[in-house]
Structure formats: structure tokens, C-alpha cells
Design brief:
- By secondary structure, the protein is of the alpha/beta class.
- The chain folds into two domains: 25-148, 3-Layer(aba) Sandwich (Rossmann fold), CATH 3.40.50; 154-218, Helicase, Ruva Protein, domain 3 (Orthogonal Bundle), CATH 1.10.8.60.
- It contains nine helices and five strands, in the order H-E-H-E-H-E-H-E-H-E-H-H-H-H.
- It has helices spanning 26-33, 55-66, 81-85, 102-114, 135-141, 154-167, 174-181, 188-205, 211-218, and strands at residues 44-48, 69-71, 91-96, 119-123, 146-148.
- It has a five-stranded parallel beta sheet with strand order 2-3-4-1-5, with helices on one face.
- The protein is elongated.
Amino acid sequence: MSQFTFNLENKPALGRNDFIVSESNLDAIRWIDNWPNWSHNSSGLNVVGPKSSGKTHLGSVWCSLSKAEWVNAPITDGMRVPDILKNGQHIVLDNFNHTWPGVPLLHLYNLVRERKGFMLIISNIPVAQLGIAPDDLASRLSTIPVVAIKPPDDFLLKEVMLKLFKDRQITVENGVLDYLVVRMERSFEEALRLVNLLDKEALAEKNRITIPLASRVLRK
């Protein structure tokens, strides 16, 4: 008999104390923890790293500290830049890539600087490698320091998976996590994929997450 499973929304914990620190992301979290002692000559920070590596989590921490506005989709020519920044000084640009139109972004950059604010740009690769236009914008963004989140070590992979399960209010035995970490592809994206699959399979089977279930999911 088929069973239906419901994908209930699980909101991740995105506070500073929820961020898992390891050698992979130590430089990045040090930048965030150093706020507000950033140099005004830098105009902001570009956080780069693989998908699902915690970049948005870091952005959320800084957003709370700085009371920044948050944008996670391209700013189009039809948008009024002052409406985006509102009465604030600082802004987070999440999911930033080469498709973001340059002219409104240049206006936003200039307004942030006029208000003596900062931009936190979150991208998969450094902004300088994205081929941003116009040249005026590319030149300005090239002055922003870049900090990279590196591929995860064993400790971080295990802790990230544990957090993802906790966000779903799922308890998983330590042995299951150890089993997964030494056999899985070493990436944040794979950790998220496995947690989603294990959650779905365990819910469908109305059973807890075990090593045999983990073994089956790893083969998918």
C-alpha cells in the first residue's frame, strides 16, 4: 500500500550560536565577529564558497548585527534604489551572480557608500571573476575583501548533518553520522541531499534513521 508523506517546512536555526565553526570557515566567521570594526576603505565583504556551505547563515548573522537590508534576487532597472535600502546603511546581496544588472547595482553601491555603509555580497565565486559590467561597478566591487569558505573537513560534515537533522527535530545516533561521513561525497550539498533523503525515507517507513537505511540511501 502506498503512503503519502508531507513535506512540512523546517526553518533552520540561523543565529550566531548555531553556526558551526571549523578550520573550513574560521576565516569567514572571524570577519563577521569583527563587525563593526571593518575598515571603511573596504566598503564591505564578499563571502564565497560552495553551495550549502553556510554563506547565507553567515549573512544572516551579519544582517542581525548590522540591521542590514536583505536582497536575494537581482535588482532590476525598474526598482528604486532608495526603496531597497530604505532608511538603512547596510545591505546583504545573497545568491549574487553574473545575471544581476549592473546599472542599478552601481546606484545601490554608491548610495551605500554615501551613507557610510557596507555591502555583504554572498556568491559561489569571487565577484571579480563574474565579469560584472559596467566597468565602474567592476572596479568598485574589486576593492571589496574576499573571504572563502573551504570544502568541509570530517568534523564540519558531521556537525552540519547533525544540525540539519536537529532543524527537522530528528534525533540520529552518533554511529549513523560516523557511518555516513566516511562514505559520502565530501561536500555541503551532498550532506543536505542525504539528510533530505533520510528524512523522507524514514518518514515513509515510519521508522528511525539507522545504518541499514543510511546504507540504502548512500546507494541512491
